[in-house]
């Protein structure tokens, strides 16, 4: 089994129905499945981030612990909202007829990183819930959770920027190639334009 197939299989073990991005018709759904899964895992974990009145008093008695708790919850809210409100966009990526293997490998790596980091966050929340609020163990787990959420936040940026950048590069390359075809075409009026339209069809599909 190739490395790419292995990664896709690992993602599918977390997300039934995930089929990757090689086929144009499946890209939008695969992207939505990843984001819905990560959002569900994070939302379930976030719901456990609550303090009983007694626990809240114990945390409030320690200003450093209270600041860490509040800042981590704010970061949690930010990450969940970014996943929930992520645009359905990436239209350029969805419309490409073909995505090269190197780009696919990178996107799959980033999908797996999102899924596994969300699982790590959920595990840390369970460990925090099991520790006495305000204790050293509780504080250490909360610091680890804050770090994991920051990494997840960065992973969201990395994935979004890569997909948007790749789509833009493909569109720019198509534009340059069309310019070359139209400038060099000497065989007859309009033929350069037809070759240009053919190039766009190969990249983005359609008639």
Mind explaining what this structure looks like?
It is a single chain. The protein is an all-alpha fold and 207 residues long. It is 79% helix and 0% strand. The chain is elongated and about 80 Å long.
Write the layout of secondary structure elements.
Blueprint: H1 3-14, H2 24-47, H3 53-60, H4 63-84, H5 91-95, H6 101-130, H7 136-184, H8 191-204
Helix run count: 8
Please tell me the overall pLDDT.
84
Classify the secondary structure makeup into a structural class: mainly alpha
**CA distance, first residue to last residue:** 36 Å
| Main sheet summary | none
How many structural domains does the protein architecture include? 1
The count of strands amounts to 0
Shape estimate = elongated
**In sequence order, what are the helices and strands, one letter per element?**
HHHHHHHH
Offer a few descriptive terms.
single chain; 207 residues; mainly alpha; 8 helices
Give the gist of this structure.
By secondary structure, this protein is mainly alpha-helical. The protein has one domain. 79% of the residues lie in helices and 0% in strands.
